[in-house]
Write a structure and sequence with these properties.
497 residues, Rossmann fold, 2 domains, seven-stranded mixed sheet, 25 strands, 31% helix, long-chain fatty acid-CoA ligase activity, ARAD1D49104p
């Protein structure tokens, strides 16, 4: 037997021995199995043609109300006092204490509190001088989009985030915006198709025109007379998008933002919660509910937030290997590409993968798997599924857990709610039924129920999802999401892929 062949079989034997050890001697699952069989608090009563009302076990029925905000304040001198939910101004104060960086072309650049404050004051002054009441922002997930949120809202102008596509001119006309912040490429289209008063553009393009302002110039102008911060507007932001032939504008209030952020932070067990020692990499180019909530959550806990630069593409593996984050925020499209790495593994890594998957079946995370060694620093992955887009299956989620040794939380979003409507339990590695995606319990800022719809009967825990709560943009009423789902006996929301 050749030496290479002997080494290969020796490694296989060692790995099989490790697998046997895991089966026979390792401590039990990561969480008591009972926790996964009772994931929601379910109301005792239900209306005809509806299911009972489902809540997070963080806010059970009869014990307390839904989570409404960040509970800021609380008295002084060690004594408890009244708290408040918080506003965009409170989030701005937290942002000035947090650490924010951008990643571009392999380089990490920090944004100091002074630079952040100067950029927000300068851009906010420009916006307020040239805008009646709204500014449309069509930028990717980036430091620039975060600066725009604070610059507009703190200067009394609502920030409307729009998709980055060739329909931007329609969105601008719909919003009656006189100021737009976008990329150089889209700015060229706007010049041809609209009469916008001021266009601030990012990137390296050399555009000339009386209404065109380069980003670097917009954030570096000295403070002018009358540029003092106005009373922050509420609602501070909105999102505009197309739904079939219609254009829809969804306004997002202070209450929506702070309740969504608070629920995201409280959804995790204490030992898994985000903290100021974490480095959070927001690794997706698309700006969405998912990225906004997690970016602001990172600021709220004082974590180091790393955002991609608006003019460069996002390379997941370069970001992770260079920055070595502890938390990764991504979307399902990027997560699916990560899961696909399992198809390119060599023989030894395939054996490791099977051992890791078997460990997950036992209810334990293979935390020292590191089949993809670049992810050794990552302890938690947040992947977001957006309505009507391809979603990560439970099988794919377990492949990512096995490949990286990181925990993964899968969240489901709809346009009418800033918070995810549900997300998987951090310790839930169960494979579930083929073709069915497990999205776990509702968030602590929401209530969910299903109503009869066509052939789907609420009496069988199947139907159309309706939601209400402080994170819903049309609260306090029940809102139809348009999604068909079912609640399992475990209280977890499940959707057919």
């Amino acid at each position: 037997m050749e030496r290479e062949e002997w080494v290969f079989y020796a490694l296989i034997t060692a790995l099989l021995a490790l697998a046997a050890y895991i089966y026979l001697f390792d401590s039990g699952p990561d969480v008591d199995p009972f926790v996964l069989t009772v994931q929601s608090s379910v109301s005792q009563m239900r209306l005809p043609h509806e299911t009972a009302v489902y809540r997070s076990r963080v806010v059970p029925h009869g014990a307390r109300g839904l989570l409404t905000g960040l509970a800021i304040g609380g008295g002084s001198g060690g004594r408890m006092g009244p708290t408040r939910d918080g506003t965009i101004e409170d989030l701005w104060a937290l942002a000035l204490k947090a650490k924010i960086s951008t990643f571009s072309f392999g380089q990490l650049e920090s944004i100091s509190p002074q630079q952040l404050s100067s950029a927000v004051e300068s851009l906010g002054g420009l916006i307020s001088r040239n805008s009646a009441n709204t500014v449309v922002v069509a930028l990717p997930n980036s430091a620039e989009s975060l600066i725009c949120l604070f610059a507009g809202a703190l200067h009394g102008v609502q920030v409307v985030f729009a998709p980055m596509n060739d329909e931007l001119d329609k969105y601008v006309r719909f919003c009656k915006a006189t100021v737009v912040v976008t990329t150089g490429e889209l700015a060229e289209l706007l010049i041809q198709n609209t009469n916008v008063g001021t266009i601030v553009f990012t990137g390296k393009r050399q555009l000339q025109g009386p209404h065109l302002v380069p980003w670097d110039h917009a954030i570096s102008n000295p403070k002018q007379a009358g540029d003092a911060l106005k009373k922050a507007i509420d609602p501070p932001m909105a999102m505009v998008y197309s739904s079939g032939e219609k254009i829809v504008l969804t306004t997002v209030s202070n209450q929506n933002i702070v309740s969504a952020v608070a629920s995201q932070l409280k959804a995790l067990p204490i030992k898994e919660q985000w903290n100021n020692k974490d480095t959070v990499v927001s690794c997706t180019t698309e700006l969405s509910n998912h990225t906004i909530v997690h970016n602001v959550a990172a600021l709220a806990v004082g974590a180091h937030l790393v955002l991609p630069e608006s003019t460069s593409s996002v390379n997941l593996f370069l970001l992770v290997s260079t920055i070595k984050p502890t938390i990764l925020v991504t979307d399902d499209e990027t997560s699916l590409s990560l899961a696909a790495r399992s198809e390119r593994l060599k023989a030894l890594h395939l054996v490791q993968l099977q051992i890791a998957l078997n460990t997950l079946r036992l209810g334990k995370l293979p935390t020292h798997s590191y089949i993809i060694r670049d992810f050794a620093s990552v302890r938690l992955v947040h992947s977001g599924a957006l309505q009507d887009e391809p979603a990560l299956s439970d099988k794919d989620a377990n492949l990512i857990r096995a490949l990286t040794g990181a925990r993964l939380i899968h969240s489901l979003y709809v346009p009418l709610c800033l918070s995810p409507i549900a997300q998987t339990n951090i310790y839930d590695y169960r494979a579930g039924e083929p073709g069915v995606i497990n999205f776990g319990a509702p968030m602590a800022c929401l209530e969910l129920k299903l109503k009869d719809h066509g052939l789907y009967q609420a009496s069988e825990r199947k139907g159309q999802i309706w939601i209400q709560g402080p994170a819903v943009t049309e609260e306090p009423q029940w809102v139809n999401t348009g999604l068909i789902a079912l609640f399992g006996p475990d209280g977890a929301l499940k959707i057919h892929s």
